[in-house]
Amino acid sequence: MFTGIIESIGSIRALTPKGGDVRVHVATGKLDLGDVKLGDSIAVNGVCLTAVELPGDGFWADVSRETLDCTAFDDLKTGSPVNLEKALTPTTRLGGHLVSGHVDGVGEVISREENARAIQFRIRAPRELAKYISHKGSITVDGTSLTVNAVNGAEFDLTIVPHTLAETIMAEYKPGRRVNLEVDLLARYLERLLLGDKAAEPNVAAGGITESFLASNGYLKS
To answer: Distance between CA atoms of 31 and 84, rounded to whole angstroms?
Structure first.
């Protein structure tokens, strides 16, 4: 688990094809690896990766075919900057929100505009994730915990202050860029919980929750 508070900007040092997937070497910059052991988790642009080698200047990790297919990791090249965060501990300050490091989908930066000293971004999420994104709710973009300022369909706005721009890779975002999105864990669990006993039935998807379903199960008053 992570908090979505980026600890360092690292960079991709090497991407090595390996049996159909990829082994990646991440240079970790100012990230303190003193307490990191083999097998520990580190989020790279919001993707939870397991350290399999610790050469001293960073770490190596294996990126599965599943991860390559479901994230924007394929867009990274040698030298690409990346957001880094170590897994949280029981004493970590939860400055952001609970983040699993399991990307739900890939969004696209639609626009970038100056807003006083901040930058206003509009991002389009995959259609199936729109229901989890709410005004003033939390969302993770490339591993960064952020507050949604406005929602219009599958598009949402973010206002990024100078500190966040300086401490993450968001300063580089331009229209057309693909970004990793992870929606709020609580929204996903709530959706599943609303299915009640039907959750145990085969082939019942959370997407089957409709107004009529809620009414027939006592969640809405007639």
So the answer is: 8
Architecture in CATH of 8-86: Beta Barrel (2.40)
pTM value is 0.88
Q: Average the pLDDT over each of 120-124, 140-144, 203-207 and give the range with the smallest value.
A: 203-207
Average pLDDT, the chain: 91
Determine the topology of domain 105-184 in CATH. Answer: Elongation Factor Tu (Ef-tu); domain 3 (2.40.30)
Of 95, 92, 122, 90, which is closest to residue 109 (Cα–Cα)?
122
Task: Locate the domains of the chain by residue range.
Answer: 8-86, 105-184, 187-216
The residue ranking higher by pLDDT, 221 or 113, is: 113
